[in-house]
Amino acid sequence: MWGDPYGGWAFGSRYLIPAYAILSIFIAFAIDAYRRNILFVLFFLILSLFSISVNTLGAITSSRNPPEPEILALEALSGREEKYGFDRNFEMIQDGRSKSYVFQAYAQNYMTAMTYFVWLASTIGIVLVALLGLAVFRKEKNV
């Protein structure tokens, strides 16, 4: 079921992964150039917070989400609805399942998996907002 000789979800972009780091440099240039444009900053912030949430959810639940064709075959065999994408990860976190070592070893006795997810994603989001705020509200130096 997991054997995909064509590369699965990473087929198209797997060759670009090394370029992502270099291309991300231009994000800094874009933030610097458009930092006074409130629509750009708002769009960037919303997109970044969504990305942080989805990636944190995937990091603490499962990295083995099958693509839609495999889910459809699994539904036909099992007779029950299966979710795919980050919906599947969200369902796992709602059920209290997390593969995170830090959660299982240290936080499991003190909070639920959902609380851990919200805490972790919020902490990363606060750091993003603080860094973006520093970029947006910094003073220009006259050289």
Automatic annotation (TrEMBL):
Which keywords accompany this UniProt record?
Membrane, Transmembrane, Transmembrane helix
Can you tell me where the transmembrane regions are?
12-31, 38-60, 116-137
Task: Give the highest taxon in the source lineage.
Answer: Bacteria
What is the name of this protein?
Answer: Uncharacterized protein
Q: Which organism is it from?
A: Candidatus Roizmanbacteria bacterium GW2011_GWB1_40_7
